[in-house]
Amino acid sequence: MSVLLSEVEITNRLQAAYQPGKSLKTDGVAETTTLSSNLQLKCAAVLLPLVRKDSSWHMIFTRRTDSVESHKGQVSFPGGGCNDSETRAEQTALREAQEEIGLSPQDVQILGRLNDVVTITHFRVTPVVGVIPWPYEFQLSQHEVSRVFSIPLQWMAEPGNWDEITFTPDGTRRSFRVITYHVYDGEVLWGASARITHDFLEILGLISGQGKIGE
C-alpha cells in the first residue's frame, strides 16, 4: 500500500469488518480438536501494538521465554487469559501488555478489535489493535518475555514472505494447514499469531482473503 493509512482509517476498517456473531476462526490446528468438541473455551485477549517507524506501520511482537507454561520460545502478541473482574477484552489486553512488556495503558490508543480466534489450547482470543508511541522504553517480564521486536506490515503482506504449510502436532496422526512466515530479524511468526496477523492485513486491504486457512 503506497499511502500510509491514518489511525481513523484503520479504525473505520476495523469497525466495518468486526462481526462478533460470525463463526469462529481457528489457527488451523484447532479446527477439529476444539470446534468439533464440547470443550469450554477460555477467555483471552491479545494486543496488536502498532507503531509508526520509518514512515510506515510496524507491528510489535514478543518472543516468549522457555520458562512459560506453553508456546515456549515462540513469537506472539502480548496477551493472556481474562481475569474474573474484567468485562472487556481491552482491559485484558492492556493489563497483559503492561505485565509482559511494561506498556502503560495510558500510552495505548485503542483502534478496534478483530473477530475472535480459537487456539489449539482452547482459548477464545479477542485481538485488540492499538497504536503506541515510538520509540518506547519497554520493561520486559523476565519470566515471560525474552525479546520485543517489530515487523513492517508491508513486509508481512508480501506473498513471498509467508507460506501455508502442513503441520502435524506431536503425539497426533493428523496434519493441518497453518501460516508460517519466513525468518525476519532472526524470528519466525507462525500459528495463531500469524493467523491473526493475516486477518488484520486483509482488513487493511494489504492481502486478499483467497487461500486463507481455518475458515
Could you state the order of secondary-structure elements as H and E?
Answer: HEHEEEEHEEEEHEEH
Major sheet = 9 strands, mixed
Helix count? 5
Measured as a percent range, the helix fraction is: 10-25%
Mean pLDDT across every amino acid position:
88
CATH class of the domain at 7-152: Alpha Beta
- What would CATH call the homologous superfamily of the domain at 7-152? Nucleoside Triphosphate Pyrophosphohydrolase
CATH topology value of the domain at 7-152:
Nucleoside Triphosphate Pyrophosphohydrolase
Q: Helices and strands: which structural class?
A: alpha+beta
Rg over alpha carbons: 16 Å
Distance between the termini: 25 Å
Folded structure, characterized:
- The chain is of the alpha+beta class and 215 residues long.
- It has a domain at 7-152: Alpha-Beta Complex (Nucleoside Triphosphate Pyrophosphohydrolase), CATH 3.90.79.10.
- It is 21% helix and 30% strand.
- The chain has helices at 7-17, 30-33, 89-101, 153-157, 191-203, and strands at residues 25-26, 42-53, 56-64, 75-76, 79-81, 109-113, 117-118, 123-131, 145-152, 162-167, 176-181.
- The strands form two sheets. Strands 1, 2, 3, 4, 5, 6, 7, 8 and 9 form a nine-stranded mixed β-sheet that branches.
- Strand 7 (117-118) and strand 8 (123-131) form a beta hairpin.
- The protein is globular and about 45 Å long.
- 36% of the residues are buried.
- Mean pLDDT is 88; it is low at 211-215.
